[in-house]
């Protein structure tokens, strides 16, 4: 979806230049008003009225000043019509009747609390994420979603005042709330496509535990698709919490322990068989003793018991003959 943001091309003036002219105009209003009245160029009452009107206009001009820090923007609206977005840094003066909606373009963190979802197998799991986001399209942010109403409802008395930092914070909090809700939906969508681990899926299949960067990339892509309508960009999204839901955590822990024990036993048996084979080959090569098949079987059985046992073997010394 293309951007609708426009650069503000209306009349602007350096703020310090306008401030100097402001002071000059104010001085001229006072001097000219009293001079014309004293010199009877115009009646005293008329002079006061003219000076009062000019003072009101002079005060209105104060509403045209704007101060910009890096990564700040103002959405310029003239009697309900969008005129563009102003992003230059510095001190400026514009038409005082222009409504200037202040926005922050700085990156913001959002730590999404873990939520309960069902994975691909149907197991309930807890999953949370942390993401970095920022505004990239001020037009969509202001006019494609109802952020202004949400921001106004959070200010004092329900009235929005763009000169108040509280209003700017309310507006950004409204965007953050929008991101949070959409991130929950995207997280549920991505988590439901994969199993928690590879215990119940085919070997090599992508899982939430083993997915790593690939899962994070898919999550970031889904979030950007959902938030594009609001002019919000996800810079980074990462899963920062992943665990089984408490009601099945104990069962799953026992299953993992059983899997670990089986895997360990496989390694032990594999090593024991390798050592028995090495012992038999060594006895044959050195011709230390000739063993028939029955004694080989007994020796293999004894070695496997010793090597695979959980406890240390208790040696038994044969005090008889070789055949007894």
General description of the model:
Helix content is 48%, strand content 21%. The protein has 324 residues and is α+β, with helices and mostly antiparallel strands. It folds into three domains: 12-104, no CATH class; 108-244, Tetrahydropterin Synthase, Chain A; 250-308. A three-stranded antiparallel β-sheet has the order 1-5-2. Strands 4-3-6 form a three-stranded antiparallel β-sheet. A hairpin with a 5-residue loop joins β7 (108-118) and β8 (124-135). α4 packs across α5 (165-191).
- Poorly predicted ranges (pLDDT <50, ≥5 residues)? 155-164
Q: Please, what is the CATH homologous superfamily of the largest domain?
A: Band 7 domain
Number of alpha- plus pi-helical segments:
9
In spatial order, strands of the major sheet run: 1-5-2
**C-alpha Rg, in Å?**
39 Å
Provide the domain count: 3
**N-to-C series of helices and strands:** EHHEEEEEEEHHHHHEHH
Mean pLDDT, all residues: 79
The termini sit apart by: 89 Å
């Amino acid at each position: 979806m293309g951007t609708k943001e426009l650069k503000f091309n209306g009349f602007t003036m350096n703020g310090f230049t306008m401030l100097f002219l402001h002071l000059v105009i104010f001085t001229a209003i006072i001097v000219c008003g009293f001079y014309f009245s004293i010199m009877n160029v115009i009646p005293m009452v008329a002079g006061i009225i003219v000076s009062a009107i000019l003072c009101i206009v002079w005060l209105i001009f104060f509403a045209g000043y704007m101060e910009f820090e890096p990564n700040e923007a103002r959405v310029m609206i003239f009697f309900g019509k969008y005129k563009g977005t102003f992003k230059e840094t510095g001190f400026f003066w514009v038409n005082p009747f222009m409504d200037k909606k202040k926005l922050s373009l700085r990156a913001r963190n959002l730590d999404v609390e873990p939520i309960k979802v069902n994975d691909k197998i149907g197991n309930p799991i807890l999953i949370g994420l942390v993401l970095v986001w920022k505004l990239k399209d001020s037009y969509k942010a202001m006019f494609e979603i109802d952020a202004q109403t949400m921001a106004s409802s959070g200010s004092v008395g329900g009235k929005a005042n763009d000169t108040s930092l509280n209003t700017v914070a309310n507006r950004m909090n409204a965007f953050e709330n929008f991101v949070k809700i959409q991130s929950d939906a995207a997280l549920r969508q991505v988590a439901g496509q994969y199993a928690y681990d590879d215990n119940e899926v085919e070997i090599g299949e992508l899982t939430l535990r083993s997915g790593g960067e690939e899962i994070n990339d898919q999550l970031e892509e889904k979030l950007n698709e959902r938030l594009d309508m609001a002019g919000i960009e996800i810079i980074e999204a990462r899963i920062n919490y992943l665990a089984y839901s408490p009601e099945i955590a104990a069962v799953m822990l026992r299953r993992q322990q059983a899997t670990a024990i089986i895997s360990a036993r496989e390694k032990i048996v594999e090593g024991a068989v390798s050592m028995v084979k090495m012992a038999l080959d060594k006895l044959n090569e050195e011709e230390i003793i000739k063993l028939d098949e029955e004694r080989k079987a007994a020796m293999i059985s004894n070695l496997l018991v010793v090597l695979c046992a959980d406890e240390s073997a208790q040696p038994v010394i044969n005090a008889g003959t070789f055949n007894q």
